[in-house]
Specification:
The chain starts with 8 loop residues before the first helix and ends with a helix. It has 3 domains: about 80 residues, Arc Repressor Mutant, subunit A (Orthogonal Bundle); about 100 residues, 3-Layer(aba) Sandwich (D-Maltodextrin-Binding Protein, domain 2); about 100 residues, D-Maltodextrin-Binding Protein, domain 2 (3-Layer(aba) Sandwich). The strands form 3 sheets. Strands 3, 4, 5, 6, 9, 10 and 11 form a 7-stranded mixed β-sheet that branches. The protein has about 300 residues and is α/β, with parallel strands linked by helices. Helix 1 crosses helix 2, helix 1 crosses helix 4 and helix 5 crosses helix 12. Strand 1 and strand 2 form a beta hairpin. The protein is elongated.
Length: about 300
């Protein structure tokens, strides 16, 4: 089968069917009749020599062939739409665009507090939908356009995504101010004498614990929470410690009775990165958003 003999309108139908898994819902979504969608599905099945959607007791389910085509078709349609649509200027002062950002809470709270203050004057109608980001790259959200940008520490980033480093971070320890007792830093011995609040969404161990493993020692974890915000609030009223990136520790220490103690040992540094999908490159609004996040992330260094 050659592309010349393929009706590209069928790809829009295929894309919708993969999302809705329903002929009737696809007909509503594309403003078509149900017979028209059924006919398009029949043509797709003949052209691709695969049933694509099969009826089960759970409803219509895609075949392996359909699943393998889902992402390439969606990406191709987005890139084609971006290429044929005229590039329009973006005016943040008058736009009411809604952006979706995925980030861990300790990053989101600092970035967004700066951006929302700035946007009161420069982009008063722009809104943000902030999604919590766990340890994994939100590949599906970026590919389907449900997430405009992801910001965080990423271990495994597929090469199909664009990536830009925002800053390099070192780990520090947060302690309640009355627990710090005038200390300026923590030695390894002092660190190991503490009990810790550990922030984890997956049970996956972090840099400091891998470093401690190599030294054949372990720290004592007394409490596990899902966000750094809740962890910082708990530490402010307890004897526990919290390991966190340095610049974000400063953010919490300015708002809670907390002291930031550098570590006298070096578990390593890491990069806070921004990720986006290449099919958004031509979106002037998202270019503006990326530049705003770069500004917010670099404000500490200016």
């Amino acid at each position: 089968m050659s592309l010349q003999s393929f009706d590209l309108n069928l790809l829009k139908t295929f894309d919708s069917l993969m999302e809705t898994r329903s002929v009737s819902l696809t007909a509503q979504q594309l403003s078509l009749t149900q017979p028209a969608v059924s006919n398009a599905l029949a043509r797709l099945r003949r052209l691709l020599d695969d049933p694509l959607l099969v009826r089960t007791k759970y409803g219509m389910e895609p075949t392996e062939r359909a699943l393998s085509l889902k992402t390439p078709v969606k990406e191709g349609l987005r890139q084609l739409e971006g290429a044929i649509q005229p590039t329009s200027a973006f005016d943040p002062l008058t736009s009411n665009r809604r952006f979706t950002i995925a980030a861990p809470d300790f990053i989101a709270v600092k970035l967004l507090s700066r951006l929302m203050q700035r946007w009161k004057e420069t982009a008063p109608q722009v809104t943000i939908n902030a999604r919590h980001l766990g340890p994994d790259t939100p590949e599906k959200g970026l590919e389907q356009g449900a997430v405009d940008l992801a910001v965080g520490r990423f271990l495994d980033v597929p090469s199909r995504f664009n990536r830009q480093s925002l800053r390099t971070e070192s780990l520090v320890c947060l302690l309640a101010s009355d627990q710090a007792q005038g200390k300026a830093s923590l030695s390894l011995e002092e660190f190991l004498a503490l009990q810790f609040v550990w922030v984890s969404n997956s049970g996956r161990r972090g840099m400091v614990d891998h470093w401690l493993d190599r030294q054949n020692v372990q720290r004592e974890i007394s409490l596990v929470v899902s966000t750094y915000t809740s962890g910082a609030m708990l530490v402010a009223e307890s004897q526990y410690g919290l390991v966190i990136a340095g610049s974000y520790a400063e953010y919490f220490s300015q708002r809670l009775p907390l002291s930031v103690l550098p570590l006298e040992f070096d578990p390593g540094q890491f990069s806070i990165d921004m990720l986006w999908h290449p099919f958004t490159e031509g979106d002037m609004a998202l270019r503006w958003l990326r530049s705003e996040i770069l500004w917010a992330a670099s404000a500490d260094e200016s």
